[in-house]
């Protein structure tokens, strides 16, 4: 079903790494998708940017669409209908083992196992178990090291625990995973807090140095979760049409760029898309009273 339409993630991330090594720091955007028109919107954004990209579905999105096979078909339809010609990959965001298993036979090119709440050895072992299922099918695996603050699906945490850069080469080596989300001060959701200009980009830098020192950087990649910029014009629009968003704050764009320059190769965005959709719906309902009749 996904043949020739959805591709693997690793070649895209490797291309970003090669561009970075040539002095043009690059990362691939990974955008969360929940429904069809959102998929077309993301593809249109990629087309305008002339960029390859990753569409990612969480367990909640898969459930909402009736299962991973349905969401994969939806993304394939969106790629075909929009005549999108740049490489696109479908990834499971924040999965557990059962969700990853389901996605392995449903057209996904990559799955994430989010078990960073476990201790280090258990995280490695659980990731390794999914890698052993996924790699024979040509599907890559993302894991997480450290802990992000904020809420994503049923995973919530009040505070960040930074990834330990010394563990990164060992984690890749022992688990066999391809991508690793490293906690360095970003957080999920629209309330990322003050002081983000002090984002711990030095953690990314140290993790990436470990990768290059161990010659892992062409096949192993660092991921930034919680990377939405939370555009203030969208917050204003939402609030002017009845929303009550307070203290909404995202990651400044120059900090994301600094993190990419330091070694991030996949950048996850969900909240910014939700804000765009919320603003559009709120405006539409306000401007079309009685539409529900
Ligand atoms: P945001 O909430 O910043 O968009 O992060 C999304 C994310 O990391 C999805 O995995």
Give the secondary structure arrangement, pairings included.
Elements: H1 10-21, E1 28-32, H2 36-49, E2 53-58, H3 59-64, H4 68-81, E3 88-95, H5 97-104, E4 110-113, H6 120-134, E5 140-145, E6 150-152, E7 155-157, H7 168-175, E8 179-182, H8 201-213, E9 221-224, H9 232-240, H10 253-262, E10 264-269, H11 271-287
Parallel strand pairs: 1-2, 1-10, 2-3, 3-4, 4-5, 5-8, 8-9, 9-10
Antiparallel strand pairs: 6-7
The structure holds 1,3-dihydroxyacetonephosphate (13P).
Structure report:
With 293 residues, this protein is α/β, with parallel strands linked by helices. The protein is built from 11 helices and 10 strands. The strands form 2 sheets. An 8-stranded parallel β-barrel has the order 1-2-3-4-5-8-9-10, surrounded by 9 helices. Helix 5 runs parallel beside helix 6 (120-134), helix 8 (201-213) runs parallel beside helix 10 and helix 9 runs parallel beside helix 11 (271-287). The termini are far apart. The mean pLDDT is 93. Bound molecules: 1,3-dihydroxyacetonephosphate. 1,3-dihydroxyacetonephosphate binds next to strand 3, strand 10 and helix 11.
């Amino acid at each position: 079903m996904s043949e020739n339409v959805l591709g693997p993630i690793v070649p895209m991330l490797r291309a970003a790494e090669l561009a970075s090594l040539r002095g043009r720091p690059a990362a691939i955007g990974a955008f969360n998708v929940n429904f069809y028109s959102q998929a077309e919107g993301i593809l249109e954004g990629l087309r305008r940017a002339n960029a390859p990209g990753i569409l990612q579905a969480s367990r909640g999105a898969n459930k909402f669409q009736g299962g991973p096979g349905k969401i994969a078909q939806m993304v394939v339809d969106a790629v075909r209908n929009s005549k999108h010609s740049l490489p696109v990959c479908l990834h499971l965001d924040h999965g557990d083992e059962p969700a990853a298993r389901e996605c392995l036979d449903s057209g996904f090119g990559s799955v994430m196992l989010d078990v960073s709440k476990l201790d280090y050895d258990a995280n490695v072992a659980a990731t390794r178990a999914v890698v052993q299922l996924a790699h024979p099918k040509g599907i890559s695996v993302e894991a997480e090291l450290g802990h992000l603050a904020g809420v994503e699906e049923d995973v919530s945490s009040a505070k960040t625990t930074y990834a330990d850069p010394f563990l990164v080469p060992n984690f890749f080596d022992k688990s066999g995973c391809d991508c690793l989300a490293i906690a360095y001060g970003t957080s999920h959701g629209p309330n990322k807090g003050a002081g983000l200009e002090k984002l711990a980009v030095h953690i990314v830098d140290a993790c990436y140095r470990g990768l290059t020192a161990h010659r892992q950087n062409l096949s192993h990649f660092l991921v930034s979760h919680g990377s939405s910029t939370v555009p203030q014009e969208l917050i204003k629009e939402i609030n002017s049409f009845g929303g009550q968003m307070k203290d909404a704050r995202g990651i400044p764009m120059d900090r994301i760029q600094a993190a990419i320059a330091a070694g991030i190769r996949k950048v996850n965005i969900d909240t910014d898309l939700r804000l765009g959709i919320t603003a559009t719906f709120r405006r539409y309902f306000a401007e079309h009273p009685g539409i529900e009749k």
